[in-house]
What does this fold into?
Amino acid sequence: MKLEPSDRVANVPPSGIRRFFELAEEMDDVISLGVGEPDFSAPWRAREAAITSLELGKTSYTANRGKRELREAIAADARRWNLEYDPDDEVIVTAGASEAIDLAFRALINPGDTVAVAQPCYVSYRPGVTFAGGEVLDVPTRVEDEFTLTREVLADAGAEDADLLVYCYPNNPTGATMDRDALAEVAAFCREHDIAVMSDEIYADLTYNREHVSIAELDGMRERTIVFNGFSKAYAMTGLRLGYAMGPAEAITAMNRVHQYTMLSAPTTAQHAAIEALENCRDAVTEMCAQYDRRRNFVLSRFSEMGIDCFEATGAFYVFPECPGDDAEQFAEDLLEAESVAMVPGTAFGAGGDGHLRASYATGLEELKEAMDRLERFVS
Amino acid sequence: MENADELLEALCENARYSTADLARLTGLSETAVEETIAELESEGVIQGYTAVVDWDAVGSDRVRAHVELNVTLDRETSYRDVAQRLAGFREVQGLRLVSGDYDFALEVEGDNMREVSRFISDKVAPLPEITQTVTHYIMETYKQAGHRFDDEGDDDRLSVTP
It folds into this structure.
């Protein structure tokens, strides 16, 4: 046998964002609004807890599902969103929310199952479904709905035949959030058509001027929903690779079956940092959140001054303006070349992203100001 | 004064933000920003604006000291009376009544160590209410007013990530 990619892998194209990354990396002095992670470092207390754990020699595996103390802290934290999960068998700690999502796909999708993927979205869902043997059903959301998921877009995409629905709110790349009423509509659709839900809530803490609501809280949804979250975004711990999933015991046990034979357990050092993060770093999250909110106001104001249409995104650290040019990919490339400002074309995030750009404001305000000035010069 | 907290937070982050930028950051109109700040100033909520300077970086010999003061009070003399006498000196940059082993924490600044020492011995120690002074010269500043003076390192994030 030759070492060639399997058909399963060969059929999945490389990430569309990759080419753009290579372009940006070749240039000097790029101000990047293309970064999908916080510009802050993890709160010092969390880092310090990780260091201390190393000093104490805490370098062995943990329980497959993660340290019990951490699972308890996660379950306690979830009560902020009216979610009740048993730390013993309804919580699993993973290497980033990404691993949790992959576990869920592999543990719960049967070959040929249809998985509705709300888009634009994080780049991993579609390939993840394919790797797990599922069939992807694209569900493009619309700018006129401010990129929320509605009964109408679900029906238009034919999602009533889907076995599973995957989405992320607050959303990457649009910054859209869904309030209780909007979620209730989606929940009703899923109950009517017996669809399970995978709700990626990694940006839950980064919700501005409104409350984050989890679909799992709504009537009849807990038993059909898996909630994903993690420490990467809210606690600025991307490199520590720590996330988790919460859901009914049967589903979490199935996910743990895959996890115990692959990852074994999430990084131990990161788990120590995460316990400290949950117990003592809420103030740091609030402070980072306040800074993101100021920057969000700033970029939205600047887009509006430039006459660029952009709905008022209320979550994550992204805004999703309409592209001032006809072709977003071309525009992003020209902008990068002419003004050394990187924004990612919406097409990199799947269906419904066409004609838009993702601008991340996980960047210092001085750089944001300069980027906006350069963009203004470029479009005028 | 609605939105005062948001404005104060932004100003504490950087007092040099322009009115236009403060408006963009807070979502207020420029007029509202101007009016609110004027009100905060006149009510004494905002007491002033200052720069956070690393004087060592410009090779200045300027010296700062943290001085612990113990005082003795009587029926006619209160903490406030003592504080008023101390606060009048231009060398006194900061003055706080604190809990613990001593009464006042003084921040004193001068052009050199001799000037600061002389100020303490000539002007502060002789005050009748003051029973003891302990002067700590500041040898190195690592962080001031929330700003770290050391290099926090480059942004090593990849320029474009999903």
